[in-house]
Amino acid sequence: MIVAKTHIKVSLGYFLLAALLGVLLRTFVVTPMPINYRFIVHTHSHIALLGWVYIALTTLLYHLFMDKQVMDRRYRRIFWFTQICLIGMLLSFPFQGYALFSIIFSTLFLLASYWFSAFFIKHTPRSFKVTKSYICIKYALWFMIGSSIGPWALGAIMTILGPESIWYRLAIYFYLHFQYNGWMILALTGIFFYLLEQLQINISARTFRYFFLTTVLGIILSFFLSTLWTGPQLIYYILGGLGAVLQLIGFGILINICLGNRMALKSALPRLQFNILKSVVFLLMVKMILQWLTAWPYFANLAASVLDFTIGYLHWTFLGVISIGLFFFLEFFRLIKLSKMAITVYLGGFLLTEGLIFYRGMSAWLGWPLFEDYSKFLAVGSFLIPVAVMLVLWPYKFNRLKVEA
């Protein structure tokens, strides 16, 4: 428990750093600074995905599934090798972008993720390997490994075709799609099934099979939605749309499971946790609907032509579904202490910035006027995110300051 809490604090430290870099990027638009904007974007995205989410998820998986007394030493080797990779990226991306050292550390990180996946699949106790939660998480790890095809392909694409090739963007979208939908969201779903198993809530094998098949097949096929900006043949729209529908069906099955066990969940969860869970369900539903809309040619072209819609969707998924989902599980399994103030500030910053990003997209689409000092409001709203993360990292310190005041 002590090791897990320490490692979660490390992941939250990365989240704080990524959030501060996000504030820096939005402040740059208001007040130009002597930084390379694109290099900071690369740093921000890598530390957010690989520092915050990856470390938090792998720590949770180890804490919940592994025999800690036997495996502690092996796991710590993987953990600290991963930290070397992250620190290397942190010290190279801001100064050179994608270049020799950042590519070396990014490549080593991929190897670290393979190492953890093999370690987890091999050493998880046999008693867990028949559970629904483990099945979801095992496939989530395979999706994470599969997503790395994108980064591996980038080197060859840049050498042979150049960064202006459509294959360059497709490789990035392949990575992001299977990271978000395959690895992160499916792993969180697996942890949710673990929670249900701990509460002794039984899910029939038939129900789980329908959920699992529709969700996994939907994740695979919905990748084609990320190719529609190229204006491909009709079959790609059909496959992408089918994937989005299958994911919606899987989500519907999951909602039905939650509703069928609503009273058991409500009685087992404190009010704050139950409300956070409901928020995650709502955010995931909106995410699924937005994804389905992009299967239609008009909305696919709109998402491709208005960058703010894509940015808003990605942040909705990452800051909303994934990060708030992580907060819920970390709080439930007592790895963090989440105060009402912290989650309120976080939701305030998230909803404010998402509203502003989507509003700018709507203004580009429908010709709405963009109000004065828009960029300043967006920068100020972004600052609420690192404030909320600090409230999560140091709840007792802030509570003590509040009492003394």
From TrEMBL:
The chain crosses the membrane at residues 12-35, 47-66, 78-95, 101-121, 141-161, 173-196, 208-229, 235-259, 280-299, 311-330, 342-362, 374-396. Keywords: Membrane, Transmembrane, Transmembrane helix. It comes from the Bacteria. The keyword Transmembrane applies. This is NnrS protein. It comes from Arenibacter algicola.
